[in-house]
């Protein structure tokens, strides 16, 4: 073996060293960007929580960061929010709206997507184009006609009326998202199920549903967040109802008329953020896997 093979030229060594340095620099830059995004996401939540546990006098005279330097924390604001601002009832109403909306959206979306991918029927192409068209249809143009219809059939001021509205306008996106994933499932799996004598229902429950769990979880997270954070629809369709207003409607009213100060309002706001925050953190891996799975076709 030659000496050149045993002792690489100095130029090659410098090139490898430069390549490793660039990789380290890029990795460092990526870490800095990720940390910056993480701080930009966490700081408002931390500020909201610290503001909710500070006395009203401190909140009015200094910034939230002073709670770290001079900690004087109390849960009294949460007691006021739950007692006088009736946040518990609002949280219950929001859950009564968001949970059924999420479940119905996921179930109907996966059934509709499977039908469009696997079942051949007249008008399937036209229905697919209609779903795409509904994705860009502004829901606001349907508010007045649906309000009149709800008043006629007695759904105005009721939670089922909000279910129908939110599910109806989330369903096109759900079917569109799940259809891409179900279309990417290898045809050989369906053929094997047919050879084993499995019915369409058995194929759907034994093959499609287990494989589609991550993307169904992703759709469920998005549907829950959209329903939970919705202000306009509950405000219009639950007007005059004897039930406690959803949390978004309650907070919007408290911003303008609360006489308790910022502390209870901050506590109520943090409680409204806590449930979606827990959902996102606990199901983050399913969300990422589901979105990536829906983006891959083959």
State the gist of this model:
By secondary structure, this protein is an all-alpha fold. The chain is 78% helix and 0% strand.
Overview of this structure, please?
By secondary structure, the chain is mainly alpha-helical. It folds into two domains: 3-69; 87-295, Orthogonal Bundle (MetI-like fold), CATH 1.10.3720.10. 78% of the residues lie in helices and 0% in strands. It has helices spanning 3-6, 10-52, 56-61, 66-69, 76-83, 87-118, 124-135, 143-153, 159-183, 187-195, 200-211, 213-228, 232-237, 247-257, 262-282, 284-295. Helix 2 (10-52) packs across helix 15 and helix 6 packs across helix 12 (213-228). The chain is flat. Residues 91-283 form the ABC transmembrane type-1 domain. It is found in: Cell membrane. This is L-arabinose transport system permease protein AraQ. It is a multi-pass membrane protein.
Question: What are the key terms here?
Answer:
298 residues, 0% strand, transmembrane, single chain, membrane, 16 helices, MetI-like fold, mainly alpha, MetI-like
Terminal CA distance reads 48 Å
Count of structural domains: 2
The number of helical elements comes to: 16
Rg, rounded, reads 27 Å
Query: Given this structure, which CATH class of the largest domain is correct?
Result: Mainly Alpha
Give the topology string: H per helix, E per strand. HHHHHHHHHHHHHHHH
CATH superfamily of the largest domain: MetI-like
Secondary structure: helix percent: over 70%
Low-confidence stretches: 294-298
Which structural class fits the helix and strand makeup?
mainly alpha
- How would you describe the oligomerization state of the chains in this entry? single chain
What is the CATH architecture annotation of the largest domain?
Orthogonal Bundle
| Number of strand elements | 0
Biggest sheet statistics: none
